[in-house]
Structure formats: C-alpha cells, structure tokens
Amino acid sequence: MEAPPELTSKEVDIYRDTWVRFLGYANEVGEAFRALVPPSVVWASYAVATVYVSADAVDKGKKAAVAHGDNPGKTTRVGVAMVDTFIWQALASVAIPGFTINRVCAASLYLLGRATRWPLPVRKWTTTAIGLSTIPFIIKPIDRSVDFMLDSSLRKVYGGGEKHE
C-alpha cells in the first residue's frame, strides 16, 4: 500500500524535520551544564544556537524567493520570511528557553544547597539533570506562546509569516 501523494511529496525541511533541529536547543543544554563547565562553553552553546537560528532564517528567505519568483513585492516577502523566522527562532529557541533553563537550574542549585547536605559536586550534577529533564517540557508551551505573541503583534504589522509547528 502506497502513502498518499501529499505525504510522499512533502519537502523535508532540514531545519525543522531532521537532527539539525536539535542545534537550536544547544543553549538550553549549555545552560543546564552551566554549574559544571566554564562560562565559555555556555557562550559557545549560544553561538551554536544562534548560527542555527540565522541559517534557518536565510533558508526561509531563499524558499520565499523561489516561491515568489519575479512577482512584485518579492523583496518584501523575502524580508518578511527572514525577519519572522529569525525573531520567532531567536525567542522560541534561544532567549526564552535559555532564560527558563537558567532560572530553573539556579533555583535548583539554591534549593538543594538550603534543603540538603549533599556535597557541592552532587548538587551541581543534580541541578544539571534537573535542567536537562526540564527541556522537553518547556518546548511546546514556549513555541505556542511565541506564536501567540507574534500573531498578536508583529505579524499584524507585516501581514502574516510562517507558523512554526
């Protein structure tokens, strides 16, 4: 039995449908390990995530350019696609989750210090485990919140943008 044509003809988006998507979560992993690694490692994780965000924005701009061909307004549509993708990804993949994991880990380390007599290395590893285990639970709510925020603000100004499911 063959799959329906709409399932087989769908183009794979390397930034959304492959392992490359996980590069957008690099900074959350960096934040989870903040208690154990030098600050330069955390900053490097933000660099990886920022390169991912930028590459996805450029990719969406290229796709918009192809989709609009030589039609009037092509430059505007390409710009909107790139800006919308960059802002969405910067908020949903870097800024908000990075801040969230940072605060979860900081609170965990503080509370473990107050509530336990565990040695510092154990508290740091526990904090890292808590931070890593938090990541899967924050992704969808943050994605939906950023969509709502952009739909309620910027997307009204420039008339749309791509939803990031």
Structure in words:
With 165 residues, the chain is mostly helical. The chain contains seven helices and no strands. It has helices spanning 5-8, 14-17, 26-32, 39-68, 74-115, 120-151, 154-158. Helix 4 (39-68) runs antiparallel to helix 5 and helix 5 runs antiparallel to helix 6. The two termini are 28 Å apart.
Highlighted features:
single chain, mainly alpha, 7 helices, 75% helix, 0% strand
Oligomer: single chain
The coarse overall form would be elongated
N→C terminal distance = 28 Å
Strand proportion = under 5%
Which H/E pattern describes the elements?
HHHHHHH
List the topology elements.
Layout: H1 5-8, H2 14-17, H3 26-32, H4 39-68, H5 74-115, H6 120-151, H7 154-158
Helix pairs in contact: 3-4, 3-5, 3-6, 4-5, 5-6
Give a nutshell description of this structure:
This protein has 165 residues and is an all-alpha fold.
